[in-house]
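Q: Sequence in, structure out?
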Amino acid sequence: MPSLLVDGHPIAYAEAGAGEPLILVHGTLGDQRSFVPQMEAFGAAFHVMALSMRHCWPGQWQDGGDFTIARHVADVAGFIRALGQGPVRLLGHSRGGHIAFRVAEQHPELVRALILAEPGGELDESLGGAPASGAQAASFAAAAALIGASEVEKGLTLFAEYTGGPGAWDRRPEDRRAQARENARTLLGQVHEQRRPYSRAAAEALRLPTLLLGGDRSQPQFATILDALQAVLPQAQRVTIAQATHNLNLDNPADFNQAVLAFLMAG
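A: Exactly. Output:
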């Protein structure tokens, strides 16, 4: 399995294809395997690399490990620099979408096009968010507490229901549940990740082509974020993926892949 050394830590990744780089960043409880249905399709046009973020499979969680948004933003930026191929196309899903947003915000010279698939997080008051809402952080903390108490299935069930609604964990295929179990303890670190809400100023500063993707069956908090970002991003396009929940790249990979490739080829 290939990896690149970033700040003394190996960032493992899966890859396919050749040509200009396309970097994929997974969400909470995921890893490079979260993008298996994308690799062949994207690899036909790009050198696609799906990262496993620090401490995620095939790595191992270490209590006290650095699992902040800032650390993972630095890792993605360092990975892009280590490639040495100039600005890249960057896709992030869920928490990975938040990371991708921050990479583009803080390192605009590294990103030429941005794809945000239901980016996770919350909105600040400048984008219509409730002051100090913290609903997501509270839900994640409750799930992490269960996992820390060795009630892993209960914790993962609670987390899945926040992102996918009642019964989401039971509906999830076993291979995806197994992947979540293998990354479950990373949620213990994520509750301290210090994720800032999205702001109007940060979004308006992203002056690059941006594709926003959402599932037509997702929980309403994700559409709220997409609505707010679409209204202020200078070069935003938006596509809704049919028959898809928050895991839209897995629920309907054909439409997801087509939307991403159409956006990238048009640029």
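The longest strand covers residues 9-16.
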